[in-house]
Amino acid sequence: MRRRTLIAGALAATPIVAGCSGGGTTSESTAAGGRTTLSYGIWDPAQAPGMAAIIKAFERDNPGISVEVQVTPWTSYWTTLRTSMRGGTAPDVFWMNAVNIQLYAANGVLEPLSEHISRDGTPVGRHPKALVDIYAYEGTQYGLPKDFDTVGLWYNKALFDKAGVKYPDESWTWDDVRDAARELTNPKTRVYGIAAEMDRQAKFYPTIFGAGGYVLRDGRSGFADPRSLEGLRFWTDLVDRGWSPPQSAMSEVRARNLYLSEQVAMNYDLSAMASFMYATPAIKDHGGVTVLPKGRERATVIHGLANVISAKSAKKEAAWKFVDFMARREAAEIQAKGGITISSYEGTQDAWLKSMPEFGLTCFIDMLDYAVPYPSSRNTAVWEDQEYLLLGAPFSGKGGVEQAARTLARQMDRALDEEDK
């Protein structure tokens, strides 16, 4: 059997119904007094308090519905979700990401939302279009965004001051990054100018787009495109010149940790990591962030989570009321106050920005104008697995990025062809 057939069987073989207190074949009106209990699957415990506050507001407006949060760690979230689908205990509502949305939508395990949105006037247009588009499949909306990430250039002001280098700002280009990385690298103190980690979302996707290249277009890989190669070389050149730690140093300790421990002066990283930066005293005191430097053009990557409904939930109307509420202003404002993620609802980000005023986080909002959606296909994970496998050697300073990228493009195209079989 082909991989897609196996995955489809795992996703679609068993009806998806409510989990925990709402499991089995429970109907829309359940529990004592006819109260409906929804299960809500998430993976980030740091966001649980914020979700609880939103649920409290939702239950106040919908006294006949209660929501129970099920937190499953990221490392086991998708495996647990597939298992619960087979066992008939999947959550009524759960978090979805760009990597998996098309796979789940194509296999009929998600409730189509377009008719619900049209009927109830859900303010989808208040969320970034690039993000909304991620959660549509073949013209139908399957998920509604709750938050978003963009990628910025984080920098350590103390290390810049010590090296006598000007802080980065919106005028910076890739040449400025290279010049600063050279001046900030100090072998004696084991400080590197920047961390060229092999990270798709935070590192090489943004520079591929900034070079005018692409990852996926019209069902074909863009890794062999000359502009895409230019975006990859931005990072491999930094490794080759010794201005970044070797990849071996980041195989177990992430670039983020090297930045937090002040071993690298600059790091491309997500807006979602701001709270981690803020919790580190040294970075809180002298950390900064700005928009990504310009390559041939300005670009960053936008990604964010969406709420989806199980297609087999026995409580779809109640589930829709909750998902609709989560996509509106009140829920967005509650989420923003938590300071963990950026609410995707337009005009509600101020609370998040004010929660960490030392950083000047407005750059993450400013980049929405040129943010590129996180690339995905029906079986994204299949070709994403090949990225790290084939690009490992060039990112480790062993050269050959052009050959590796072309091999990756061929293998990615084969994987994309398999999606249609």
Written description of the protein model:
- This protein starts with a helix and ends with a helix.
- The chain has helices spanning 3-12, 48-61, 74-87, 98-106, 114-120, 129-134, 157-163, 174-184, 200-210, 226-240, 255-260, 274-278, 281-286, 316-326, 329-337, 350-355, 362-366, 380-395, 401-419, and strands at residues 36-42, 65-71, 93-96, 136-137, 140-141, 144-145, 147-148, 151-156, 192-194, 216-217, 220-221, 264-270, 287-290, 300-302, 306-309, 342-343, 371-373.
- It is 44% helix and 15% strand.
- With 421 residues, it is α/β, with parallel strands linked by helices.
- The strands form six sheets. It has a five-stranded mixed sheet.
- α2 packs antiparallel against α15 (329-337), α9 (200-210) packs across α10 (226-240) and α18 (380-395) packs antiparallel against α19 (401-419).
- A hairpin with a 2-residue loop joins β10 and β11 (220-221).
- Residues 1-10 and 12-27 have low confidence and may be disordered.
- It contains 19 helices and 17 strands.
